[in-house]
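MOLECULE: protein
FOLLOWS: sequence and fold
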Amino acid sequence: MEKRILQAICVILIIASVVVVVVFHKPESKTDASYEDGVEYIDPDTIVLVDSGAKVSFSEVILSPPEEMRKLIVFQQDATVSADIEKSKIKNWNIGVLMQNQKVTYTAKGSFVVDLDKLTEDCIIDDPDSKTLTIRIEHPKLETIEIDPNNIKIGTQDNGFLAFGDLALTVKDYVDLEKDLRKRLTEKLDTSANGQQADDIALEMVKKIYEPVVRAVDDDYTLAVEFK
């Protein structure tokens, strides 16, 4: 009887020892292993790669692939122009009593653009001695004129003594009016003053765009932007 009790106690002690080993033994975690993989973890959304010593060309990171389009709007200016519409109530009878007059006013926004797609390797000048990278760009150009359809004003119609009814315009009249007003808007927007202002802003904007790129390639470099 005592022998059986001793045997039972031994079995219980053996089982308890196994349980203790299973509970308190902490297997070595793979994540605790010490090794260098070249990646420094900062936070879940940011990693920093250890410098590999590879040489990266500035032109490789600045020039865009052929399928991309990069046009930078550097300056926008509003302008307002007016045109007087004059038309005789009877064709080819341009006398005062038969004439109808009306003023039309257009308001538009002109955009000066730098075409960054025209950058080539010749436009990127690397001076390793002075640690300076120079990007040469074209001057901004007035590229688009957007007429605000909600801000077209039609003045009061002025009729001659015998010119009764509303002013009737043909499709050709509207096309000619549109061309004339766009021409006036271009002349009003494409001035030396607006061009100079666009130039000044273009140099600043292009530098702000590419300066982080240049520093990412080589933090010792400074960036200069100039016109061709």
